[in-house]
DNA sequence: TGCTTTTTGTTCATCCTTGTACAATCATGT
DNA sequence: ACATGATTGTACAAGGATGAACAAAAAGCA
């Protein structure tokens, strides 16, 4: 009659575990969010990965490619593929560092800043839309859970390197 | 001194909005989860997309490629690329339907079922690990929030078609 | 100083994902 | 029955992400 008995029955399928079901929902929501954001950004001719980059350049002017890749949880080679595109479009600038000639410091151009602000408004509008007026406290709770998970998973990452 | 005054100041940057910060955390957690799962599944020679397919075949035997693609929120062409691989490896079977010759009905082979069970254990273990003993009620609350978002975003999807 | 190791960014091959165009089959309406 | 439109799966080209191999530059150390 207690919890242990109930959970020791035959139905040990993953989708019967609350945590599993919950995580599947999170993953699907992320997926849908990406797809919807892709559609809403289409007229600006950028995609979510580009926006991630632009937002970080907006916040952290002069960041390096390495730091940027680490923040976005992607490989350095990914930045090497995407950043030249944004540079050619005149949205960002890459300047070599005087002290360390390996480093390229990134910053937004005026045009890049304008486009980033426009895109960020689209993203925040989408986030507000999709949350459908859910209470802020729920968001805070979710953020805490997610940040705990991120910490755990990042620790596993470090240990492998 | 009240909340309204505080939030009406100059700092209308997205990352000052609780919902925005919360969603970024969700997205990053998903990303990390995928990467970690990829590593933990490597020795089975499958990746998260394959596991998604296998789990759905495990649950819904005889599903069609179309239905599978819809459940996974991916395009039909994606299934056309991945399923032949799994079929060649002897993990799944594709049989034509008698009544509707367009349809291919999918099912797991014995080997596929074994591998799926093994992979599902890895995934549930990872989910449990990463949640670090967080209370089940929190997971349920998160699941509810995410499912509400999914409903909203899916509705926008339908309206576009 | 000179040698080794580490860090930073690029290049390349590979795979995943998408969208479009297409062929086959079915459903619908006349 | 027959023409039209919808649905299902495939083929192909294009773009994004990854990891490994690589060159240049810096840091550590004898």
Automatic annotation (TrEMBL), chains A, B:
GO terms for molecular function: DNA binding. Residues 16-151 form the HTH marR-type domain. SUPFAM superfamilies: Winged helix' DNA-binding domain. This is DNA-binding MarR family transcriptional regulator. Keywords: DNA-binding, Transcription, Transcription regulation. Coiled coil: none annotated. InterPro entries: HTH_MarR-typ, Tscrpt_reg_MarR-type_CS, WH-like_DNA-bd_sf, WH_DNA-bd_sf.
């Amino acid at each position: 009659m207690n919890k242990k008995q109930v959970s020791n029955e035959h139905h040990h399928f993953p989708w019967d575990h609350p945590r599993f079901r919950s995580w599947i929902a999170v993953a699907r929501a992320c997926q849908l969010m990406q797809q919807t954001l892709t559609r809403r950004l289409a007229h600006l001719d950028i995609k979510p990965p580009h926006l991630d980059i632009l937002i970080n350049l907006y916040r952290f002017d002069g960041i390096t490619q390495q730091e940027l890749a680490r923040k976005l949880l992607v490989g350095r080679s990914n930045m090497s593929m995407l950043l030249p595109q944004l540079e050619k479009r005149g949205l960002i600038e890459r300047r070599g560092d005087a002290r360390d000639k390996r480093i390229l410091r990134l910053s937004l151009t005026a045009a890049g800043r304008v486009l980033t602000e426009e895109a960020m408004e689209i993203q925040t509008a989408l986030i507000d839309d999709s949350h459908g007026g859910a209470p802020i406290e729920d968001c805070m709770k979710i953020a805490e859970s997610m940040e705990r998970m991120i910490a755990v998973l990042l620790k596993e990452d470090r240990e492998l390197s």
